[in-house]
Amino acid sequence: MLEERKSLNFIEQIIEEDLANGMSKADLRFRFPPEPNGYLHIGHVKAIGISFGLGEYYNAPVNLRFDDTNPAKEEQEYVDAIKEDVSWLGYKWDKELFSSDYFQQLYDWAVEMIKDGKAYVDSQTSEAMAEQKGTPTQPGVDGPYRNRSVEENLDLFERMKGGAFEEGEHILRAKIDMQHPNMLMRDPIMYRILKKHHHRTGNNWCIYPMYDWTHGESDYIEQISHSLCSLEFKPHRELYDWFLDQVVDPKLIRPKQREFARLNLSYTIMSKRKLLQLVNDKVVAGWDDPRMPTISGLRRRGYTPNALRKFVETVGVAKRDNVIDVSLLEFCIREDLNKTAPRVMAVLDPLKVVITNYPVDKEEWLDAENNQEDESAGYRKVPFSREIYIEKEDFKEVAGSKFFRLKLDGEVRLKNAYIIKANSVVKDAKGHIIEVHCTYDEDTSKKVKGTLHWVSIKHAMNAEVREYDRLFMDEAPDSYEDKDFMEFINPNSLKIIEAYVEPSLIDAKIGDRFQFQRLGYFNVDKDSKADKLVFNKTVGLRDSWAKQKPQPHEQPKPSNNQQQPQRKAIDVIQQLGKKYTNLPAEKQLKVKAEIQKLAKEVRYEELEPLFNTAAKKVGTRMAVMLVLKQKLMEGLPKTDVVNEFIQKALEDENELLVSEAQSI
């Protein structure tokens, strides 16, 4: 909530300045205006959160308006999906509106502009128009139809509306300035002929308004006070205002367009067109495939509204585009599910264990804690018997001293059950271990280092587990001019596993989320049936990609006769932090990025001693905060020591340090 923040973002500052300068709080109104030409994705969550978040704080209405001006790409399916997504995120809109509601009013205003000599019908080819429009460094030139008479323009425009012409024969352009330095102001198109069925207006119209003409006028009709857009619309602001100049009544609210940086995510495609290609080419199973960055895909994968809202809140509102590491999104869902997801046991790669001294016909139902993070979660019963499954990777015949799982002559604790000792193995004809024979000890007070999850074979339920990985193997798959983004598809992004789960899951419902102990977080997929549960892996317990990525600042190893001591990452970070707060903003960004990269090489044991850095060394404490933020994203738990350091930073006089602490 805004009242809890010590500093406002720049959009909030704009609104506060407007209120201070006389705008009534009652005049505040916002909108979220998606085009219904695809499903919403994680980038839209930021835009949704900004507008609806402001609405919640100021108790101001927020409209959900569909900018449906292109019937060639828009469908009712997308309208329904968008409404479901916004509702699922927990937001409520005031009015559900469509730009198509205003087609007649927009047409009437266009006619008035023609009468005022501010719009004309152009009959050039698109190639000729592009040539006469000039370039960013060369002014445009007036076209041959620019000075048509008002009467001729009115006649042509009415006949365009009546369907007398084919697509591409004529367009309506605003008459502004063909030499304007902003190319968007060089007589922009207002209407084009499209003889296509519209999902709401049917075949009533065969001319459709362009987005730039529709956007601001729709805001004005709805009396939107602050029209918030992503950064790519900043060059359009001048045109937005020019179009408003033609219609506004000074007694009414004039919308103000302001822009924020859109959300870009590593290893992720945000283009609706490219996401549609993934669907059409059947690379994924649909818009809601759990590998897709769509809200419906994230929902199906097991993400929660709270995690997505927390993610965009952590990212914040910026004026410059940047790329957010997808690991932050994964951290947010881990943190949320850690508090709420019940713990259960499942085995994905089973190895049979026979407990030879446990009676053949005996079975017990043992108490198992549902969630140690939630005192109210209570306990459940799990069955135990002579034969159980454990994960194959949890057993080795021979292992080193740092292997804390089961090995021959070694002991481990079975979660919620007994301590077992491995005595022998049974192998198949190829020498593969197919059984481990153990004995159990009822004395559970003994100290052993390893704890394993397991399921009773007799009681286990079969389940299909869909283990998802990132869809792309490159951090920026659509950033290459000479390569297609499809070249970076991860061929192993989906792995289907036949698993065994404990019987308490028999009543699991579609959408239910669980932590499979020691494995990760999973949820029940919509493909589940009464006789076959299907689980999607939401996220692992730790960031498995951090180990795979090449370490930053990795240098070729010098030959033995030229060995040079390499400075520890933590030492470099301390050095970078010393002057951090005195650097200009642009330099700070570069140093911050360098610290964040180096942070992955730092162990927590190296970091904690720096929590007690003297107050006057604010740059060092800033660097430590940046490293801590990275470690928390990687799964470091928030201990009392960590929380104490963050709290001290929140109370500091340095605004930069306070801001970073607030973002954690």
TrEMBL record:
**PROSITE patterns per the UniProt record, alphabetical:** AA_TRNA_LIGASE_I
Q: Where is this region: Disordered?
A: 126-145, 545-567
Keyword Magnesium assigned to the entry: answer is no
Q: Where is the composition biased (Low complexity)?
A: 557-566
Start and end residues of each Glutamyl/glutaminyl-tRNA synthetase class Ib anti-codon binding domain:
341-441
State the InterPro entries in the record: aa-tRNA-synth_I_CS (IPR001412), Gln-tRNA-synth (IPR004514), Gln/Glu-tRNA_Ligase (IPR050132), Glu/Gln-tRNA-synth_Ib_cat-dom (IPR020058), Glu/Gln-tRNA-synth_Ib_codon-bd (IPR020059), Glu_tRNA_lig_a-bdl (IPR020061), Rbsml_bL25/Gln-tRNA_synth_N (IPR020056), Ribosomal_bL25/Gln-tRNA_synth (IPR011035)
Q: Which NCBIfam families match?
A: glnS, PRK14703.1
Write down what this protein is called.
Glutamine--tRNA ligase
Q: Which organism is it from?
A: Litoribaculum gwangyangense
